């Protein structure tokens, strides 16, 4: 499983063999594949936008609770 010029991450040929046996793909198959990738990226982008907002809200909440704890307020 050594990395080579053609497989820089060291992917074993037994995993790549089914992909190599597909032969040439027709343009509609390539279009469908690209559309599927676009949908995955779009959904991932939306999910990440929500995730970032949740992380920022969590950071603010923890910071406020920490500061209140330093000031001597027992919140939890």
Short structural description:
The chain has 76 residues and is an all-alpha fold. The protein has helices spanning 13-20, 27-70.
Structural description of this entry:
By secondary structure, this protein is mainly α. It has a domain at 26-70. It is built from two helices and no strands. The longest helix is centred in the middle third of the chain and has 44 residues, at 27-70. The model has no long low-confidence stretch (mean pLDDT 80).
Distance N to C terminus: 53 Å
Return the structural class.
mainly alpha
Mean pLDDT: 80
Question: Which descriptor suits the 3D outline?
Answer: elongated
Percentage of β-strand residues:
under 5%
Low-confidence stretches: none
**Biggest sheet architecture:** none
- Helix share, percent: 55-70%
Described by its quaternary structure, the protein is single chain
- Rounded to an integer, what's the Rg over CA atoms? 24 Å
Our count of helices gives 2
How are helices and strands ordered from N to C?
A: HH
Report the count of strand segments: 0
Summarize this structure as a short list of keywords or feature phrases.
76 residues, mainly alpha
Q: What is the strand and helix layout of this fold?
A:
Blueprint: H1 13-20, H2 27-70
């Amino acid at each position: 499983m050594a990395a080579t010029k053609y497989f820089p991450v060291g992917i074993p040929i037994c995993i790549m063999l089914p992909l190599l046996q597909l032969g040439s793909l027709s343009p509609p198959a390539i279009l469908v594949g690209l559309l599927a990738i676009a949908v995955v990226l779009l959904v991932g982008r939306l999910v990440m936008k929500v995730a970032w907002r949740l992380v920022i809200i969590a950071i603010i909440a923890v910071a406020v609770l920490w500061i209140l704890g330093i000031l001597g307020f027992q919140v939890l």
